[in-house]
Task: inverse folding
């Protein structure tokens, strides 16, 4: 989902930075608030952030004959919400821009918007929608993780389509072309990511249910039900 | 007694299915190079804009890993940072749980 340095006109770089910066500020503010309220949230932040580091470094082959990487944002989206997730993604994307030439500083805003903001926002909307239903919490984690991943790649396609509309068919046609490259490749990866993160969440529930309850991620009843099943 | 490893089983099936899909694709798809989708996306940008890929220059100067090996090493370093965080915290939590049981 990385837009490479120099591949986005400067006007679009500015637009995406303007959208990304307030979200990052909100993330810093929320992180301070969460850690001030409960220092025990810090290890959970380490685990959820750790998975963004791990999964976004894995370039995996897909059915389209190309490679792509998962995003790993599902766990932190559920545990801490989209703004703190944006902050975690910004750190990972900054590392990749500076040391791996994946992305770049001018396009960092655009990459933060796709991976750190829109993906987690979509995931968070699904989480809020399903949180108070009787659906098993692991299915919720699966859906949040897989769809946050997919939304990231759909957003990258849109960012590029807006900057490079096709001569015939304009933005819509260009969007369809970028979707073929980014989103179709991502479908199997997103499914596997969803299953893996649901499994990781099971271990968090098993080892540290109290922090999930204190943060209000799921209710005590839901956590207890999940501990006795699966 | 209820089966308690449904998620582990599903994760195993998902990973095996993913590997099988890759093996099938690589065996049947002619011309599949498994290049990064980022690079393929850059190719489409070049096509849509009518500008060759090599003409796109960084807006902000950027350090590029001098070889694929160095790049792979740095990607491994990124994964290792994540692995240390995840392993360290799970180990810490496991230790806490054992400590509680001992008391």
Result:
């Amino acid at each position: 989902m990385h837009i490479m340095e120099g591949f986005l006109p400067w006007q679009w770089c500015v637009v995406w930075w303007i959208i990304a910066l307030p979200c990052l500020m909100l993330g810093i503010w929320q992180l301070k608030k969460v850690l001030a309220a409960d220092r025990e949230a810090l290890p959970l932040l380490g685990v959820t952030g750790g998975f963004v580091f791990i999964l976004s470094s894995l370039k995996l082959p897909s059915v389209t004959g190309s490679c792509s990487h998962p995003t790993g944002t599902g766990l932190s989206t559920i545990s801490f919400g989209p703004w703190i997730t944006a902050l975690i993604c910004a750190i990972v994307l900054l590392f990749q821009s500076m040391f791996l030439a994946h992305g770049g500083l001018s396009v960092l805003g655009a990459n933060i918007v796709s991976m750190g903001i829109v993906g987690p926002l979509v995931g968070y909307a699904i989480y809020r929608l399903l949180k108070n239903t009787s659906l098993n919490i692991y299915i919720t984690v699966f859906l949040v993780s897989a769809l946050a991943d997919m939304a990231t790649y759909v957003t990258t396609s849109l960012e590029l389509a807006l900057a490079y509309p096709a001569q015939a068919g304009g933005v819509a046609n260009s969007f369809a072309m970028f979707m073929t490259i980014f989103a179709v490749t991502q479908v199997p990866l997103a499914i596997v990511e969803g299953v893996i993160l649901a499994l990781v969440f099971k271990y968090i529930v098993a080892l540290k249910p109290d922090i999930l309850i204190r943060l209000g991620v799921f209710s005590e009843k839901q956590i207890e039900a999940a501990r006795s099943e699966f | 007694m209820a089966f308690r490893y449904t998620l582990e089983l599903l994760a195993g099936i998902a990973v095996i299915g993913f590997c099988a899909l890759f093996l099938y694709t690589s065996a049947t798809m002619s011309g599949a190079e498994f290049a990064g989708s980022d690079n393929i996306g850059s190719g489409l940008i070049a096509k849509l804009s009518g500008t060759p890929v090599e003409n796109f220059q960084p807006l902000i100067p950027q350090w590029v890993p001098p070889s694929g090996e160095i790049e792979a090493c740095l990607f491994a370093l990124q994964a290792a940072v994540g692995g240390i965080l995840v392993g360290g915290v799970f180990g810490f939590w496991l230790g806490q749980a054992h400590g509680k049981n001992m008391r």
Observations:
- Chain A has one domain: 10-228.
- Chain A touches chain B through 73 residues (CB under 8 Å).
- The two ends of chain A are 33 Å apart (CA to CA).
- Strands of chain A lie at 60-61, 66-68.
